[in-house]
Amino acid sequence: MAPAPHVPLDPPDRLVRTVTAWEGEAGRAWLAGLPGLVAGCLERWELTPERVQYPGGNVSMVVLVRRADTTAATLKIGMVTAETAQEPAALAHWNGTGAVRLLEHAPEAGALLLERLHPDISLRSLPDAKAMLEAAGVLRRLWVPPAEAHPFTAVADHTARLAALLRERRGRPWAESGRPLIDEALEAYERLAGSPVPGGPVLLHGDFHQGNVLAADRLPWLAIDPKPLVGDPGYDLAWLLLDRREDLVASPGGRAAARRRLARLSDALETDPGRLRDWTVFRAVEAGVWCWSVGDRTGGELLLEFASWLAE
């Protein structure tokens, strides 16, 4: 069916900015074809659009829709990258346990039809302590063994590439001030890479933070937007530990609060605090140096300051 003419289906500004900045010419070409992809999926799955979700994702367009039987759903169309390619497989494996349920999938369009959650209510709407408690409950449901012949990248392989990039960026002139902390992060990575995963590898969300957990009807909270990997749960937990870092860095007791948060999360999810510290330092420094590499000095400084609190 054709989209209702009164429903604007233009890509959100944030999507245009990030895809253009991160993906260059390929991103611009994808954005040019995006209206056609949206229209094709609306027709293919007999969907009626209600509105585009703003501000939406960084690399995907989200449209709230109704199916032919009038049930609510969500259409998500994004660029297919190495990070996002296995999202449908992860959602299918979880089958609604801890994560949004996958209803339909069109791989050639990078399109997913998902159950409707409450897109404007994430865990960030809760006080931080309560949000962390709820997030821990979601992670317990997500961390399951993968299928024997799974398609997911191993954390060990993914982080080996990140560590190699971090070593290369360490020598750039703009990274000079961060070199001592980069060395700390690489030492943490070597400790992790040289040790077995306690309890064995599990399927990870890969980008787990409070903003990627939305209110739902089937369960109170469900995860969205995975970048799935298989490996050490500490990899997932580290990114959650870094959540709301802006608030912690701005507060006078931020350093102590960050360390208390680490202790609480490692205890709640029975994760070794030393491993969680190492994962957090590595992920924070790697992401911070990446921010520097793309010109985001402020974002990079924030991540490195947080890492420095745990590295001491």
TrEMBL record:
Domain of life per record: Bacteria
Keyword hit for ATP-binding: no
SUPFAM superfamilies assigned: Protein kinase-like (PK-like) (SSF56112)
Pfam families documented for this protein: APH_6_hur
GO biological-process terms attached to the record: secondary metabolic process
A molecular function GO annotation: phosphotransferase activity, alcohol group as acceptor
Name listed for the protein in its UniProt record: Phosphotransferase
Lineage of the organism: Bacteria, Bacillati, Actinomycetota, Actinomycetes, Kitasatosporales
Keywords: Transferase
